[in-house]
Amino acid sequence: MSAALTGFTVTSATLGALASTEPSAVGTRLVRDIRRSKRLVLLRGVLDAAPGGRAGEAADHWALLEEAERHDPEAVRDVLHYPATGVWAEETLRRLHAPYGPPADLGHLGALAVAAALRSGITFKTTLRPVHGRLVLPTLGLLRPARPGPLALTEGCWDPEDPGALLLHALPGGRTALDDLDPYRAPGPAHPTPVRPARRLTPKGHKRWDTQWSGALTLLDRYDTARAEEIGLLLRSVVPLGGGSRSSGATLPAAAGSVLARTQAPPALAATLVHEVQHGKLTALADVLTLHTADRTPRHWAPWRSDPRPLEGLLHGAYAHLALAGYWQRAALYGARGAWAQHARIRAQVAAALPALRQHPQLTTTGRQFTDAMAVAERSMDELPPPGDQHAVARRAVERERRDWCARHPELAPFTEG
Predict the structure, then answer these.
(1) Per-residue pLDDT averaged across 274-291, rounded?
(2) According to the 3-state scheme, what is the secondary structure of 317-353?
(3) Coil, helix or strand for 35?
(4) In sequence order, what E strands does 244-366 have?
(5) Helix axes of 52-71 and 107-120: crossing angle, nearest 10 degrees
(6) For residue 100, with 0-12 CB atoms within 10 Å meaning exposed, 13-18 middle and 19 or more buried, which class applies?
(7) Is residue 277 a contact partner of residue 230, using CB atoms and an 8 Å limit?
(8) What is the pLDDT, as a whole number, of residue 418?
């Protein structure tokens, strides 16, 4: 959805709280409310755009959703706001309005309705057609019917013990799922993204993820309880990255509440979760506020990358790294090995990027308030500095990197400073 959502008021205090990256009840509530509102707008758009021949079928599926909601609103809300549902809704709207290309998968609305009906415990009867021999049931798993063709479904159709059922894997310690099943867990091949989800994991792969996830949550609870709680509230699913990915993690706007991540040691996974959740927060805020009017031309130096970045990318990167600097500072205060060095390096990177960001002529007034508040949060880290001259050393190293980058991109040197 390109247009900003309406009906949201973001106070200066809430904007400042979000800009600091520090978790807050008001900021978390706003992010969740924006995501829910956007999802309902998308679903309404799918219903309105359904072609005449499929409109009645879509209306029947929606009626089943409404019946399920009357019995268990929370269960239906979880199905409709599951991250993969957003990917499906955006892709379906795109296909419904495209004159050419593959047809829209309106049958998936029926799968959402069946999943909601099963979770709510109501009695129902409907028929759906599996795709490639599989019928996904979002938040539950998928069915693999023994025979091809349409599949009659009732309240007794889902049995996790059935050999034809594959259960969505639940990660330990909360409501976050490890999603290696849903076909909409990430945008399809036609979507321009450098990351791809892994195929279905083996039981050994699930066990490895359980171990690393539990370790990461333990570290987050120990070092930064507020961020651990924020991740629990804002992260509904983790999608394993496919092999060969150079990225440790990624966040895709269509899949609000989800993170793509590769397997990694618990300290690295904890940092990845902190980093990626910030991208989701900033994406939600940008759905209701215009922070800048810059285009997508890559021209800015980002100390954490070698390639030039557009202003949007610089803003997202600085925001996520500001949170990481705060996380590593807290970890260092608890005695985590190497944490002071991580904090000093990342904070120096953020401090080096902020001048160009704050002085950009295409920031809106709101964007300037937001980046000013980010700078205040960065400076507040002086209250608990690393021992010795680690911060000064890190700043000098980042300055050398800036000069090297300018030498490689002389035409972009004016964009490296405010």
Answers:
(1) 97
(2) HHHHHHHHHHHHHHHHHCCCCCHHHHHHHHHHHHHHH
(3) helix
(4) 249-250, 258-261
(5) 10
(6) exposed
(7) yes
(8) 63
CA–CA–CA angle 165, 168, 169 (5° rounding) = 125
CA 15 to chain centre: 20
Residue 170, helix vs strand vs coil: strand
pTM recorded for the entire structure? 0.94
Residues 6+ apart with CB under 8 A from 386: 332, 340, 341, 343, 344
8 A C-beta contact, residue 143 and residue 128: no
**Model confidence over 312-359: pLDDT tens digits?**
999 999 999 999 999 999 999 999 999 999 999 999 999 999 999 999
What CA–CA distance (Å, rounded) separates 303 from 398?
7
Structure tokens at 412: 């972009």
CA-to-CA distance for 216 and 228, rounded, in angstroms? Answer: 10
- Report pLDDT digits (tens) over 15-43: 999 999 999 999 999 999 999 999 999 99
Alpha-helix residue ranges (DSSP H) falling in 172-224: 203-223
Say how far apart CA 317 and CA 320 lie, in whole Å.
5
pLDDT of 101 reads 83
pLDDT (tens digit per residue) in 46-87: 998 888 767 788 899 999 999 999 999 999 999 999 999 999
* Token output for 402: 């800036």
For strand 165-167 and strand 135-137, is the pairing parallel, antiparallel, or unpaired?
unpaired
CA dihedral of 79, 288, 315, 370, whole degrees rounded to 10 = -130
CA distance 249 to 240: 9
Region 241-252 average pLDDT: 82
CB atoms within 10 A of CB 249: 24
Pair of tokens at residue 274: 């902190």
